[in-house]
Structure formats: C-alpha cells, structure tokens
Amino acid sequence: MLSRAAARAVQTYRPLAIVARGSADAAPSGGIRDEVNFPRPVRMEPGKTRMGFIPDEWFTFFHKKTGVTGPYTFGAGLITYLVSKEIYVIEHEFHTGVAILIMIMYASKKFGKPIAAYLDKEVDAYENSFNQSRIDSKNALLESIKEEKTEQWRAEGQNLLIEAKKENVLLQLEAAYRERLAVAYTEVKRRLDYQVEKQNIDRRISQKHMVDWIVNNVLKSITPDQEKETLNKCIADLGLLAAKH
After folding, report:
1. Whole-angstrom Cα distance, residue 31 to residue 213?
2. Are 150 and 42 in contact (CB under 8 A)?
3. Tens of pLDDT along 65-80?
C-alpha cells in the first residue's frame, strides 16, 4: 500500500508536463484544442499490488503460460537458484532484512489504506487547484469574448445611430429647402400681386381720366341752344308718355 501511495504521488507530476506539452503541440492554428484527435491526458492510477508492494501485472504475466501458481513457483525457484549458486549469500544481516520486510508489509497492511487515502486526498486537491486555475482562465477568456461581442453589438448600435443622424441631417436639409421654396414662392407671388395691382390701378386711372375727358369734351361741344332744345324735347316725350298712361 505504501508503494501505491508513493507511486500515486510521483505520477501526479508527469501528466501536468504532458498536458502542457500536448496542448502546445496539438493546438491548431485557430487556438482551439482538438479534443477528439488529441484528448487531454488523464492522471493514471496505480494498479493492484500483491504482498504489499509487488505489482499485480508481474503475476498475471505468467498466467497464460504457467497458470495461477506460476509466479510463485518462479519466485521460489529464482530465490532457490540464487541461494544455491551463492549468487546471493545469506549473511547475518539477512535476518534483519527479513524482519524489516515483515515490518514493512505489516505497516503497509495496517496503515497503508489511511495513508493512501490521505495522500490521494492531497493529490486530488493539488490536481483540482491546477484544474481550477485552468477553469478560471477559461471562464475569464469566455467572459472576455462575451464582453467583446457586447462591444461589437454596441459598435453596431453606433452605426445605426450614425445612420439615424444622417437621416436627421437629410430631413433638416429637406425642411430648409422646402422653407426656402416657400419663401421664394411667397416673394414671387407678392411681387406679381404688386404688378397686377399696379396694372389694375393704372387701368382704373386711365379709364377715369378717359371718361372724364370724353364727358368734358361732350359737354363742351353742346351749345346752350342745343341744350335748351334737347331739354324741351325730353319734356315733350315725358308728356306723351304721361298721356298714354
């Protein structure tokens, strides 16, 4: 169990470097990681162990050829060979090593799980701190993108405002143009009315002078005898009209 805890503690450092290198190598030109072809590495968990420190893979390696008892037979035979050929010489420190090994195995069985749980908790907290940093950076970038989109939307609003101002300027120009047209129409009409009134006054004055001139000349051409004769004739006509009625 101690070997498993130590292996877990050691292996937490390797995936971080792999993640950093993989992100730099696998990131495309657009800056977005291809999660399908280049998935993010996952922290490996140590495998199962036997006798407290021997990996289980060392035992399962023999199962296809020798069966379940093969690894133990191989281990016993190897130890027997090393001792019989005096490749490994048993001296007075051998018993100390055996005692220490038994103590280590006992400690691994007795305290391995609590220590492993504590170390796993620390490793998870350490990993979560890195992941949280990455998540915070990602959220900050997403927030920046959101703010950038908001600014772009505001910029589009400024374009609409500029178009509205242009329309207002064009309407003001149109209103000023129409006002000037109205002023020009009024001034031209006033001058034309003046000319018409002037011509009417000239005509009336000319007619008055012409009538007065004709009347005066007619009166001047009538003599007193013609006037008396005309007056008598008018009286006679009136008498005849009265006699008929």
Report:
1. 110
2. no
3. 888 888 888 888 998 9
